[in-house]
């Protein structure tokens, strides 16, 4: 599959829609079983089984063993993802999907500014510019507007 900016934007937009769907679905599962942590666990379990099957089908199963040599910090993505799933399914009944998504995006943008500026994880460092700060500010304004 060719890696083009247009395709990447489409994939990320679809992933964004999936996040908007995932939060209320997981929250409903949490209500159904009476546990937000249990719902997050089930969500990750189902996702794990699916990803494992796809990894094996694509012939990359043996590559999973390479994770044993990876720096531990590179294995924290699962922890962060688990926190994301639990935090969103816990918060969606309180905030609603729109505000939850706006706050989630604001958090991502603020973290992205820092990650880009510091060039973390081998990324090219990028300056924090006025336009980038204004973009974050506009999302912050969107958070405020989403509550009224």
UniProtKB/TrEMBL annotation:
Transmembrane segments: 37-58, 70-89, 95-115, 127-145
GO CC annotation terms, alphabetical: plasma membrane
Keywords per UniProt: Membrane, Transmembrane, Transmembrane helix
Pfam families, per the entry: DMT_YdcZ
Protein name: Transporter family-2 protein
């Amino acid at each position: 599959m060719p890696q083009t900016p247009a395709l990447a934007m489409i994939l990320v937009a679809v992933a964004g829609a999936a996040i908007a769907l995932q939060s209320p679905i997981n929250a409903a599962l949490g209500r159904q079983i009476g546990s937000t942590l249990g719902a997050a666990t089930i969500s990750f379990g189902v996702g794990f089984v699916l990803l494992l099957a796809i990894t094996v089908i694509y012939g990359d199963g043996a590559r999973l063993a390479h994770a044993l040599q990876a720096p531990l910090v590179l294995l924290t993505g699962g922890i962060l993802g688990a926190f994301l799933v639990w935090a969103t399914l816990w918060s969606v009944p309180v905030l609603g999907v729109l505000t939850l998504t706006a706050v989630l995006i604001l958090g991502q943008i603020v973290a992205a500014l820092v990650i880009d500026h510091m060039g973390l994880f081998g990324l090219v460092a990028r300056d924090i510019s006025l336009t980038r700060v204004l973009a974050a500010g506009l999302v912050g304004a969107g958070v405020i507007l989403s509550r009224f």
